[in-house]
């Protein structure tokens, strides 16, 4: 069975790298763990490594985190649906909010559950995803204040996820000023501005983070060592925390070009072929993973000389050329994975999950 492996040693290294970076900049940070899709095995490794709060956009995943580690602070990082208010208060210590009526529902539930529910008010800064308009922040904050058992612990923003709008010093300075206006208006302190994410990390290296920005939410850079701002890699971090391993289930020398009239395949494509390949043959391998579990565009083989030809729902087709490595049926191949590859594989029940543990027993 194909499987995805989490290397806990490399994850710990990346965590330590980021923790030192944020500590030097006097910034608190939380881990966005939604990539792990609530998998208990992988979440246990993350919780073993980190004492940080864990963010997720799926309530069921936060429920799993609370089961594994009741004391870990959980953060629901999208505006909650009103109908989920009871469960949000039960399993999320903090939630990101933009709607007064939803906050009212959370307040009612927090009173019933005898809890203080913390909220971060999300502010629109150009990305046009979630967030109230900045000019309305003082009024919105004033409307939230009377609700019992609700504590505003921060204001935040989201950038880059929908329209690719990049953070910059000017936007972050404006957001800090909005917070100061609210504090001056109401004579109250707002502890955090949660305005950083993986895409904002490169601004730290450039000393372009205003002093008031003191909270980051990081997922991709932790797991992949990526510089999201410049679509590159951060020197000194591991990019291969995850590895996809597949098994060869067929290996036969076949023609390079298929025979017959070409229609559309499972993906609705009509493949094109180069006439110069007529009559040529190569070693074709089929491995035990397909479109249901992975997108071929999001993975790449560790070994040189292996080409991904295509995939059907359950199988991936590879061209091994002359098969110089002498692969045979039953052998396994390893692939690098990007963010979307891991997300898709983690969400598939047909891909096994394994941990290469260093501080715990190998599994």
UniProtKB/TrEMBL annotation:
Keywords: Isomerase, Pyridoxal phosphate. Transmembrane segments: none annotated. Gene3D superfamilies: Alanine racemase. Residues 45-225 form the Alanine racemase N-terminal domain. GO terms for molecular function: alanine racemase activity; pyridoxal phosphate binding. GO terms for cellular component: cytosol. InterPro entries: Ala_racemase, Ala_racemase_N, PLP-binding_barrel. Coiled coil: none annotated. Its cofactor is pyridoxal 5'-phosphate. The keyword Isomerase applies. This is Alanine/ornithine racemase family PLP-dependent enzyme. It comes from Chryseobacterium elymi. The lineage of its organism: Bacteria, Pseudomonadati, Bacteroidota, Flavobacteriia, Flavobacteriales.
């Amino acid at each position: 069975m194909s499987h995805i492996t989490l290397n806990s040693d490399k994850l710990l290294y990346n965590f330590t790298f980021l923790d030192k970076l944020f500590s030097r900049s006097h910034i608190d940070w939380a881990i966005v763990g939604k990539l792990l899709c609530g998998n208990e095995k992988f979440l246990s490794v993350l919780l073993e490594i980190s004492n940080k709060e864990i963010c997720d956009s799926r309530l069921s995943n936060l429920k799993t985190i609370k089961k594994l580690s009741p004391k870990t602070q959980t953060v629901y990082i999208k505006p909650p649906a009103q109908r989920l208010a009871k469960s949000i208060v039960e399993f999320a210590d903090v939630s990101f909010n933009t709607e007064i009526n939803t906050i009212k529902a959370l307040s009612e539930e927090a009173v019933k559950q005898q809890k203080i529910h913390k909220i971060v008010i999300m502010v629109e800064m150009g990305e046009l995803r979630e967030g109230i308009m900045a000019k309305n922040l003082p009024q919105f904050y004033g409307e939230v204040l009377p609700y019992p058992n609700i504590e505003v612990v921060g204001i935040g923003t989201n950038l880059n996820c929908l329209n690719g709008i990049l953070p910059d010093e000017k936007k972050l300075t404006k957001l800090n000023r909005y917070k100061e206006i609210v504090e001056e208006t109401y004579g109250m302190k707002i502890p955090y501005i949660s305005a950083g994410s993986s895409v904002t990390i490169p601004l730290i290296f450039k000393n372009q983070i205003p002093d008031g920005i003191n909270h980051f939410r990081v997922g991709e850079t932790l797991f992949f060592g990526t510089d999201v701002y410049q679509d590159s890699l951060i020197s000194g971090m591991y990019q291969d925390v995850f590895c996809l391993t597949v098994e060869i289930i067929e290996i036969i020398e076949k023609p390079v070009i298929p025979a017959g009239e070409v229609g559309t395949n499972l993906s609705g494509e009509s493949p094109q072929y180069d006439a110069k390949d007529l009559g040529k043959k190569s070693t074709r391998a089929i491995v035990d993973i397909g479109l249901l579990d992975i997108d071929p565009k999001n993975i790449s083989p560790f070994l040189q000389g292996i080409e991904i030809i295509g995939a059907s729902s359950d199988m991936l087709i590879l061209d091994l050329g002359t098969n110089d490595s002498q692969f045979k049926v039953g052998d396994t191949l390893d692939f690098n994975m990007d963010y979307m590859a891991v997300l898709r594989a983690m969400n598939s029940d047909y891909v096994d999950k394994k941990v290469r543990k260093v501080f715990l027993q190998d599994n």
